[in-house]
Structure formats: C-alpha cells, structure tokens
Design a protein that fits this description.
- By secondary structure, this protein is mainly β.
- It has 2 helices and 8 strands.
- The strands form 2 sheets. The chain has a 6-stranded antiparallel beta sheet with strand order 1-8-7-6-5-4. A two-stranded antiparallel ribbon has the order 2-3.
- The longest helix has 17 residues.
- The N terminus is likely disordered.
C-alpha cells in the first residue's frame, strides 16, 4: 500500500519543471502530500492554447531532469553526493475550472527513479562521480497541479509517495 504525503521541507531542489518540482533526499527515502486536484472537464487542444503550452512545458522539464546530475551537501555529515534521475510514465491533462483564481489547471503525474552516489569529502569529488549505489535508490510517484496565468505555469500543490 502506498501512502501519499505533501511535498515537504525536507526535499532537495530538482531542475524538473523549472525548479518548481522538488524531490526527497534519497538518504532515508523520507515521504511527503498536499490535496489532490479536482475532477473538472479537460480542455480541447488548439494551436495557441494552454494544453499545447503545458505539453511543451512538461516535455522540456522531463528532458531537463533526465539529463541533470546535481550534487548536494549533506548537512548532518558535512559530505557531498551526486544524484541522477529517470522520469517515466508521464501523464498530463489540462482542465478548465469554475475558479476565478485558477481558471485553468495543468495536472501531471510521473514516476521518478532517483539514484545517489556514495558520499565524498568535497563538492569537486562528488561532481566527478560516475558510480551510483544500489542501496541509495528510491522510486517516487508524483502528482502535481499547476495554474496557468499570463502565459506561465506555476506549481500550486502536489503529492509524492515512495513507490514500493
């Protein structure tokens, strides 16, 4: 059984979706949730509409994330490690709502497979890492909601769960 949790303060920044998305630090594979989206009707795509814009936004973000290998300082050990990502099973939808605040929502769900290297004494050593450790792998199931305003997509909320 998978439990859903809000995106938490324990998450490390990820370049996915223009740095709006965040992932959990693989050490310990902690979990985190926020309320799910509504069930409003989908918007029919046209050449200039938000559906086309959201599709492009999601494709670029997925590609950017899958090619990213950021490093981070592990505060409790004072050491550095490196991550790599594989985003898959991406599903998206754009819906019109009755809301005056967020009349158009973009919904996206995906699986994120995250791997980490061993810890290194310096940031430079971590950046050079090419080996990722089997025991430091986690899979997450993300569901995110974005609002469309003035030609821009902004993250509203989302849920993540550790995928067993």
């Amino acid at each position: 059984m998978t439990s859903r949790h809000p995106l938490s303060r324990h998450l490390a920044a990820l370049p996915f979706y223009g740095a709006a998305i965040v992932i959990i630090a693989t050490a310990g594979c902690k979990r985190s949730s926020v309320p799910k989206g509504d069930a409003s009707p989908p918007i029919s795509p046209t050449a200039d509409d938000p559906a086309t814009s959201f599709d492009s936004f999601v494709r670029r973000a997925t590609q950017r994330t899958n090619s990213a290998t950021p490093v981070r300082l592990i505060k409790w050990t004072g050491k550095w490690d490196k991550y790599r990502f594989n985003i898959s099973d991406v599903k998206m939808d754009v819906r019109k709502t009755d809301s005056l605040v967020n009349p158009i929502l973009g919904l996206v769900s995906f699986l994120a497979h995250i791997e980490a290297s061993i810890e290194y004494g310096t940031e430079a050593e971590a950046r050079e890492a090419e080996t990722f450790v089997e025991r430091l792998r986690c899979d997450y199931d993300f569901h995110l909601r974005y609002a469309y305003s003035r030609g821009q997509w902004s993250l509203i909320d989302g849920t993540q769960a550790v995928d067993p």
